[in-house]
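Researcher: Structure prediction, please.
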Amino acid sequence: MQNLNKIKKQLFLIIIIFLYIKVNAQQWTGLPTFTTNWLGKIHFVSEDTGFVTDGTRLYKTVNGGNNWPQVGPTYYNIFSPFFFNGTTGFVCGPSGIYKTTNGGLTFTDVFPDSVLSILTLNFPTTSIGYASAIAGANYDTTLIYKTTNGGNNWSLISSMQTAAFPQMHFYNANIGYLNNNYNEILKTTDGGNTWNMTATLNINNTCESIFFPSQDTGFVTSLNEIHRTIDGGNTWIIINTNTSNAYYNLFFLNSLKGFAVGGNLGSGIIEHTIDGGSTWTPGIVTSLEFASVFFPSRQIGYACGSTGQIKKYDASLGFSDVQNDLQISIFPNPSTGIFTLQKPTDTKAIVVVYDVLGNQCLSITLSHGEGTKQIDMSNFAKGIYHLQLTEGDKVYSQKIVIQ
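Model: Predicted structure follows.
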């Protein structure tokens, strides 16, 4: 009888996982195509208004992706559209940085220097922005430019030796991160004036994307791997490996919920995490690669890629992620058995821990006003466990690991 109950629990968990994957896939729907070109970067300023580029043209939608007319001229090559709103924004490329104040109808060159290419644009505020450029005969020099007046003027603030095509992300006006494609992570805390190496990643491929949803928590994709740091870039661990597909881009709504996109020849993937990257769920699998993903809100997101495909995510089409709503933190994870659980609300909650067979191992009650709780599992066997927190009508679940 006891074995039968275990089998029932396992079957129940399998059914729940299957339904979650199925519904998660249904949250992504295809939008009308308007080109067969590779769409390399997508950016939205609201749930309905956004921009996407195919490398030479910029397209704009104001109705949630149903129509995408071209705006502005056709360029030799453009990257990284970044817009503050539906009227003011930028595109960049080999020729410089171009700014528009009329929704992309016309652009003005605002970049003063001659470089091989501007690769990335980051605006942590509406006035302060950063641009990374490559220079040198062997593409081995990275130049960092900064604006303090909303992109009207740009000044060179730092130069460093790197490999080609480094990735950059600024969390706020002063703290930023750069991967120099020598597998090194560089960090600035003074607004880009000085950069110091914080870590060397154990990767065999180049960095494709870097994103920090908080000051200390960040993620890096290196083709077939996703790496995570929770200490401001000092240490990194591999949290996901996909030998069949490459990861080209990622976007996190907060330190827990994020999306990664990519693919390979003949395949494309969108994966989804709600526990800070500890586990990933396939959101969609197609025969076409994805290159970029962006979420203007927690409910709506977009992804683009090869042959002009654009997918739209609508959270209302499936289960909501209560984990994101509760904003629970469990750290360190993995650990040797001592975990700290934090939640922002002060209401009563029940915490239950299960092993991989579905057996209940531990039950703890968090009293009213108890927002932080230490969970001692140091006497438990090493392995994977599932923690479930119930607070009122909300249920939070996360995998925890004892190592």
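Model: Helices lie at 2-26, 322-326.
Researcher: Thanks, that helps.
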